[in-house]
Specification:
With about 220 residues, this protein is of the alpha+beta class. It has one domain: Jelly Rolls (Sandwich), CATH 2.60.120. Helix content is about 20%, strand content about 40%. It is built from 4 helices and 13 strands. Strands 1, 2, 4, 7, 9, 12 and 13 form a 7-stranded antiparallel beta sheet that branches. The protein has a 6-stranded antiparallel beta sheet with strand order 6-5-8-3-10-11. It is globular and about 45 Å long. The chain starts with a helix and ends with a helix.
Length: about 220
């Protein structure tokens, strides 16, 4: 019993520490690509950017995207997490949230729109953050149902995973490295709650064993 408890004690600090969120993808806060256009609008097509999860099963707890809108419409965007299908967006995996054109336009300049989520992800697995306008179908020539929100880009791409991931536009899927461009996005991941609970359990059992010996 003593050996088991000491083993749990040895692992507990690691497990508790690892419960902190890890930034698995981050291109936010760097210079936006402004020529010939400041960013790619999801108005006429869906736009998606990929990331790869951490090396342990975990939970995505934050997704942030840097957006702009200087001419808002009455529409907005849906943000959805997709699975991967051979380095392209697969099928919807989990809803992330939504944002309206007016919300983004209320901020002068770039607006980092963040979503606090709780989405389990498998280890070392690629996922996609996809922005779309449900009321906007094929786009041109009728864009009345489309959003005017623009998703900022970064050139050259830098930051965690920036050069090893992909972006999907209406014109196809491209690796960030091949076009020297990345969507401005941050994704944070924390270990599964079970790992944290195991660490806390180990500390609790050791404390109880210590009190028993003292008595």
């Amino acid at each position: 019993m003593r050996k088991i408890l000491w083993c749990m004690l040895a692992w507990s600090p690691f497990l508790v520490t690892s419960a902190r969120a890890t930034v698995v993808f981050d291109t936010i806060g760097n210079t936006a690509f402004t020529t010939p256009a400041p960013d790619f609008p999801p108005s006429w097509y869906q736009i998606a950017a990929s990331f790869t999860s951490d090396s342990i099963d975990g939970v995505v707890n934050y997704i942030g995207v840097q957006l702009q809108d200087s001419a808002p419409t009455a529409n907005g965007l849906q943000v959805t997490l997709f699975t991967d299908n051979a380095a392209a967006p697969g099928v919807p995996y989990a809803p992330v949230g939504s944002v309206t054109d007016s919300q983004v336009a209320a901020v002068s300049g770039p607006d980092i729109v963040g979503f606090n989520v709780d989405i389990p992800v498998a280890q070392n697995t690629r996922y996609w953050v996809l922005l779309s306008t449900p009321s906007c179908y094929s786009g041109e020539p009728d864009t009345s149902g489309c959003s005017s929100i623009q998703w900022d880009t970064q050139r050259p791409p830098s930051g965690p995973e920036a050069t090893t991931e992909y972006l999907a536009l209406g014109l196809g899927v491209h690796s960030n490295a091949s076009i020297n461009l990345a969507m401005q996005m941050e994704v944070d991941e924390a270990p599964e709650p079970a790992s944290f609970a195991l660490g806390a359990l180990g500390l609790g059992l050791l404390a109880a064993w210590g009190r028993r010996r003292a008595s």
